[in-house]
């Protein structure tokens, strides 16, 4: 998803992009496991659950320097561009009318529900993620091809102007609690993204850890024939084992989202084969005391869903042949995408309104073989952008929670070299 492609932006724009310097940061921190006081005992409505009550203690300094000071280079591009808006790689909403999309070299804003888009930013880099606190304060990460991390830019006036803030040290899910405090993977910022502090993580973690805030961190730890969900209530200084699951397949990736201090949606990805990927989704809304086996997706090519053995099943088998994006709105409402490279229409979506106990799949599927972009503001208003490497990305919106969809906007055809 992080292909570097230089769009046709013109000589002046290319020279401007070359002048912008990046900061410096690193992501690290694995640790040995030690025994601490027992954790609260969780339960899950699946026979393969194996609750545990030990704690994992990470090693390494609790906080290390990261990021560096904000760049003294000229601010990021503030000139609204008139170039193409090709393949969409990021989407974020402020409300059901206002949002931002980004792609290969551009960021644009809509204020009319996606019908029209005003291009606000142009640099020759892929937009990886956009996060907005409201319709004025918004951040975006750019893949500039640096091993130090992703460039972070910020706007406090709704995208009318953007400034370079710093360097995000990893590709975790970026989110801010306010103007200053934010998290991405195992890193924390207290100054709006100018500098980053690395938080400690347990050993053998799979994928990125996730901190909703300093008192609520989540991680998945891989073990022999099992994986374990861990929780930190002290900014990563210590980690408590919350739930272990026996598994026939080792997890190869995770995606963790949280909408509150007791809420966690944990997607565990399994094996891949024949363009098919197995995965599972678990959900808690009580801080890990109980877990809902929301999705268990077995595939012929990818094998069994992680964490499900024997006859154990999830509440849904998902859509598509591999997981798409997960978007959690609150402890009850979430949307789960599905991708299918071998299908005529490769993008699908389903929704839950009861915390993952039941799911409703949209009857409509969408053409496009890229990763679908999903954003929502409540149970009813959800947007889906179906993407493709060679065909235009297309925006569809729903006002009834995904039951029906309207085609709202077609972006420009990608211009890949």
TL;DR?
By secondary structure, this protein is mostly beta strands.
Mean pLDDT: 86
What quaternary form is this? single chain
Structural class: mainly beta
Low-pLDDT windows of residues = 1-41, 43-55, 59-74
Radius of gyration: 21 Å
**Overall outline:** globular
Number of helices: 1
- Biggest sheet record: 6 strands, antiparallel
Strand proportion: 35-45%
Number of strands: 29
Distance between the termini: 16 Å
- Overall helicity: under 10%
Q: Could you spell the SSE succession in H and E letters?
A: HEEEEEEEEEEEEEEEEEEEEEEEEEEEEE
Detail the topology: elements first, then pairings.
Blueprint: H1 11-19, E1 43-44, E2 49-50, E3 55-56, E4 88-93, E5 99-110, E6 118-132, E7 138-143, E8 150-155, E9 163-168, E10 175-176, E11 182-184, E12 187-189, E13 197-198, E14 210-213, E15 216-223, E16 226-232, E17 239-246, E18 253-257, E19 264-273, E20 276-284, E21 290-297, E22 322-328, E23 334-339, E24 347-352, E25 360-361, E26 373-376, E27 382-386, E28 394-398, E29 406-410
Parallel strand pairs: 1-21
Antiparallel strand pairs: 2-17, 3-17, 4-5, 5-6, 6-7, 7-8, 8-9, 10-11, 11-12, 12-13, 14-15, 15-16, 16-17, 18-19, 19-20, 20-21, 22-23, 23-24, 24-25, 26-27, 27-28, 28-29
